[in-house]
Amino acid sequence: MMKKRVFLTRTLHDFALKELKKRYEIEIHSGKIPIPKSKLRSKIGNIEGLICFPYDKIDRDLIDNAKNLKIISTYSVGFDHIDTKYAKKKKIRVGYTPEVLTDATADLAFSLMLDVLRRVSEGDRIIRNGKWIQIYGAYDYVGTDLQGMTLGIFGLGRIGSALAKRAKSFNMKIIYHNRKPISKNKENSLGVKYVTFLKLIRSSDIISIHVPHTKETNHMFNMKIFKKMKKSGFLINTARGKIVNEKDLIKALNKKIIAGAALDVYESEPISKKHPLTKIQNVVLAPHIGSSTKETRAKMAEITVKNLNLGIEGKSPIYSVGY
Ligand code: NAP
Fold this sequence. Notes:
Blueprint: E1 4-8, H1 14-23, E2 24-28, H2 37-44, E3 49-52, H3 60-65, E4 71-74, H4 84-89, E5 93-95, H5 102-118, H6 120-128, E6 150-154, H7 158-168, E7 173-177, H8 184-190, E8 192-194, H9 197-203, E9 206-209, H10 223-228, E10 234-237, H11 246-254, E11 260-263, E12 283-285, H12 294-312, E13 320-321
Parallel strand pairs: 1-2, 1-3, 3-4, 4-5, 6-7, 6-9, 7-8, 9-10, 10-11, 11-12
Antiparallel strand pairs: 5-13
Helix pairs in contact: 5-7
This protein binds NADP nicotinamide-adenine-dinucleotide phosphate.
NADP nicotinamide-adenine-dinucleotide phosphate binds near residues 155, 157 and 158.
């Protein structure tokens, strides 16, 4: 029997490729990342399974060309790069990789928070640039304590809850906003309090974003919101870049409307060393590494392959968007 065909927009771990090769005829894009749309369009018509990454935009046009496709298996928890509604309409399943990356991403959000409040990366730059001239005195180079601060979690889902657990052990006060509050039992065990979006913005010393990028959350953090935040407030974003209006953020930081920011995600990635954010000292910049630990990335590969296998068999993936 002819093997089913699977296309990967980028290579994966050896163990995952070995698994795929046992069952399918596979082709892996090498060269420019992300794969040019024209190349993906030329491949997508002949395959039953697609493995893609968060920077591969799978839109209506590509889906219209995907005549034999049964599953799009994305190597990410975010699926804002896929037109999932249209895929469903065309009976193409979409698999994604939540849960396995929750702890790694919460760890990164917490480390960014510590970094920007204690000015670790800034200090690293001072030393590397030969600017550490004398031992600091009482008022020099002071950071901010995390203890006692109010952490506002925007999006208390899997990653937001994992961040709350970490923050609790640092004796932070934790408030959160979702469209719907979580159960009272969960609130009590996490030690969190539900507030309105406005209250979250006004009362938090640090706001950490953990909502998905959707039409509703697009540019939700803009100048209007930064002006409502505390002047001493910090913004952490490990969710998606487009949730924040980056131009407004740059203005807010430069005009000291807020005290600092730590980011793992940007409106357009990668950013270059000429990007205005790189010129601001009270900003920590990470290159989209939320889930990037060797253990987590391997688990994501395992789920990506399992989701793909199920989709090709006509079954629902372990983690499925829609059906
Ligand atoms: P999740 O479990 O689905 O949690 C999302 C939370 O956001 C939910 O509590 C949801 O609650 C809330 N929410 C959704 N839309 C909202 C809105 N319009 N207003 C207020 N709250 C809203 O997702 P997760 O696994 O924690 O992942 C969150 C996001 O992190 C992903 O979508 C992904 O983009 C990003 N991420 C980034 C990295 C990285 O490498 N930096 C790694 C992993 C994940 P309600 O439904 O009640 O509103």
